[in-house]
């Protein structure tokens, strides 16, 4: 409003510098003054909410309306500065473009300057330099993390550029990224994955399970307490995911939870793995008959096995006969190339 009134040379009507002429002695001047006064009153009442306009609709001069609005809406310097500084402290680019981010940031700076008193003339240069450096740091701190490289390059410059020069450099970087959107998107995705990975790693380090003595989870989410397999009598999984039932070879210890089959099963898998690494489980009802059958087979009946392999198979089946004690472990082995 002040800019509009100043441009039309009407600012004196609201600050009181243009006085009302005498209606009797200066009728022409009074008519012009009254015309301008009513026009300004119309501007002021239409620039506020209708409820506020009702309170000043009967004012005689624009000066009275202006003073009334000033008393209602003017703030002291301290609360206004506090609000601006608070906005600056939490202001960042986020999803805005660099241009939008800088424009809004500059608006806060300019608003803050209206509440600050200018220093004396001999300190003006030092004041301006300090203000430019503060604004440069504020601008760089609010940039998105994808601009880390250009931010580092700006901070390494000597002397430091002013905030407008830094803004120009960041705009150039943004323009180059818009020309290659795919690489920028990949960079952003990689940065987000790294950030989430770091968060997950930090969270995992803070968790410890007292039941299984492992890191990465708590006792409330421990799988060994939640799941139990009736087939192998082990904890940590269910029967539909049991690797022993599905025929999938398992060589790792499942966490050391004690049960009555662990020791014998580990010995069997160890002896089987040492004897041969490429044989799979098959149905065999009599291990002694299988052993005799292997000895009696000739090379033509098993074209994929050599004599040494047949001997190793026979030895493995003999070991199985000695070690198999429980019905749940009556797995036999068939030939496989």
From TrEMBL:
<dbReference type="GO" id="GO:0008270">
    <property type="term" value="F:zinc ion binding"/>
</dbReference>
<protein>
    <recommendedName>
        <fullName>Retrotransposon gag domain-containing protein</fullName>
    </recommendedName>
</protein>
<dbReference type="InterPro" id="IPR036875">
    <property type="entry name" value="Znf_CCHC_sf"/>
</dbReference>
<dbReference type="Pfam" id="PF14223">
    <property type="entry name" value="Retrotran_gag_2"/>
</dbReference>
<feature type="region of interest" description="Disordered">
    <location>
        <begin position="252"/>
        <end position="307"/>
    </location>
</feature>
<dbReference type="GO" id="GO:0003676">
    <property type="term" value="F:nucleic acid binding"/>
</dbReference>
